Amino acid sequence: MAMHRRHTGTPTDDRPDPWPGLRAEPRAEPCVEARRDPRTEPHAEARRDPRTEPRAEAPRDPRTAPRPDARPEARPAPSPGLPSTPPGDAHAAALAHALLAAGHGYPVIPLTRSKLPAIRSPHRGHPEVPPCRGECGRLGHGVHDASTDPLTVRRMFAAAPWAIGYGLACGRPPHHLIGIDLDTKNGADGLTALRFLAEQHGFPIPPTVTVLTPSGGRHLWLTGPPSPPVPNSVGRLAPGIDVRGTGGYLVGPGSLTAHGRYALAPGSPQRPAPVPSTLLTLLTAPPPSAHRESRADVPPQPAAALVRFVRASPPGQRNARLFWAACRAYDSGLGQELTARLTEAARHTGLSAQEARATITSAARRRQG
Predict the structure, then answer these.
(1) Contact yes or no for 170/178 (Cβ under 8 A)
(2) Regarding beta strands 218-223 and 273-274, do their DSSP bridges make them parallel or antiparallel, or are they unpaired?
(3) Sign of CA dihedral 114, 120, 121, 124
(4) Of 241, 198, 246, 234, residue with least CA distance to 220
């Protein structure tokens, strides 16, 4: 019997440890139990139950009972929304994801929990003129350090053991990645804004790689041509839409940040889709001149396009589209003029007049507030 128990305990001791660095704790308890089980437990049940069990437990309580109890309590409970792995494992996971992305041709860099490049500039305190972009051969130049070479990627992560995420450089060959960041913060609705632009300008939104962000937004990955370069922008295309192009980077799926983890959307395609030509034209168009005077008779978003956008609302998007269009109407100074037309368009989709007016009133209060 004793030989059999020692034999069955051996595979338990040799199994791979899922918690690197903590091997001593889970292995101490099975060894103590393996020595006590074959000698004391069977004999205690047969002869010592009425006489020796109280005396056998008493000397062990002050010495052995607190030790197994203290070990689990020393480990902090996992926080909601964050993985229960030690920081070292988060760093190793980020490196593994980064190497996988680099193997698919995406240049990567390590990131901190605040989504910033993890390696500090070697020129801090002594800025280079013109700015150095890695010509010095040292690390710490942000997105200019991004590489697909596995040895270089490992070297960067070794230089930043605090990195728990990674970024993918946009605009670099072979994919010339373009990131469309659809935000949902501060009342913005980037996805609705993109749908409006697609209907207004007549381009499709292709199924493509989609990464879900901890804040509830999403990143769409698209591939572009080598030229013209797509510039980075924040809200220029529409409120709630940020663009990551040449010189920018996207937080890669699997990265851990202070607010949570980035993850691929369920059913996301494996390869990014080519950017539609009309959307590429919008992305590369020069920004409007600051000295150009805006004409009062040409609102930023035409009234007819806003009405068409509401009338074409599919089920499940009627209130969201109406609210977004009403916000744009008030931004353009046409809120009062378009209230009746937007209400009529909403009723065409199946909303009641009371629901439509309540949604438009909510948009007006948000913009006026």
Answers:
(1) yes
(2) parallel
(3) positive
(4) 241
66 CB contacts (<8 Å, ≥6 apart)? none
pTM: 0.62
Task: List, for residues 218-237, the tens digit of each pLDDT value.
Answer: 999 999 999 999 999 988 88
Among candidates 160, 158, 144, 157, which has minimal Cα distance to 107?
A: 144
Alpha carbons 117 and 177: distance in angstroms, whole number: 18
Distance from the first to the final alpha carbon of the chain: 79
- Count other Cβ atoms within 10 Å, centred on residue 42: 12
356 vs 236: CA distance, rounded Å? 28
Q: What is the pLDDT at residue 30?
A: 40
Q: How confident is the model at residue 302 (pLDDT cuts 50, 70, 90)?
A: low
Other CB atoms within 10 A of residue 303 CB: 17
Give the integer Cα–Cα distance in Å for 72 and 80: 18
Tokens of 11: 């595979």
**Which residue in the block uniquely carries the two structure tokens 């995406």?**
106
Identify whether the C-beta of residue 85 lies closer than 8 Å to the C-beta of residue 125. no
Distance CA 229, CA 226 (A): 7
